[in-house]
Amino acid sequence: MENSALQSQRSMSSISTAAQSSEQHGAGSSSNPNEFVNQGLLLWNQTRQQWVGNRRLNSQRQKTREPKIGWNATYESLLGSTKTFAQPIPLGEMVDFLVDGWEQEGLYD
């Protein structure tokens, strides 16, 4: 058991070192040719950064954005058909809408 824990620790150390190395030298290049570089992790982090973007700007946009669901929307009018929405509805707004509807119907406490 100690051997597998030691191997895991080495793997995590290699991943951490590889991430730092790629940030300093560019993705894929390494100062030690025998050093493991997790290319999948590097690509995932890069893709995630593009997807998430700058969180501060995104949170400011969300605060100033008008709600997508109208104040007079009903559960049936919103979810009673198979038509797609004209524009994406933020998850938080949809959750709030559903919880409000469930509370009114006594389905959610």
Description of the molecule:
The radius of gyration is 23 Å and the shape is elongated. It starts with a helix and ends in a 5-residue tail after the last helix. It is an all-alpha fold and 109 residues long. The protein has helices at residues 2-25, 39-52, 55-64, 75-79, 91-104. 61% of the residues lie in helices and 0% in strands.
Which structural traits does this protein have?
5 helices, 109 residues, mainly alpha, Gag1-like_clamp, elongated, Gag1-like clamp domain-containing protein
Quick description:
This protein has 109 residues and is mainly alpha-helical. Helices cover 61% and strands 0% of the residues.
Give unreliable regions as ranges.
Answer: none
Instruction: Write down the secondary-structure element order.
Output: HHHHH
Principal-axes geometry comes out as elongated
| Total DSSP E strands | 0
Please give the share of residues in helix.
55-70%
The major beta sheet can be summarized as: none
Specify the structural class.
mainly alpha
Q: Quick check: average pLDDT? A: 74
> Which value, in Å, is the CA radius of gyration?
23 Å
Distance between the termini: 46 Å
Approximately how much beta-strand content do the residues carry? under 5%
Question: Total helix count?
Answer: 5
Biased composition (Polar residues): 1-10, 23-34
Biased composition (Low complexity): 11-22
Domain Gag1-like clamp: 5-109
Region (Disordered): 1-34
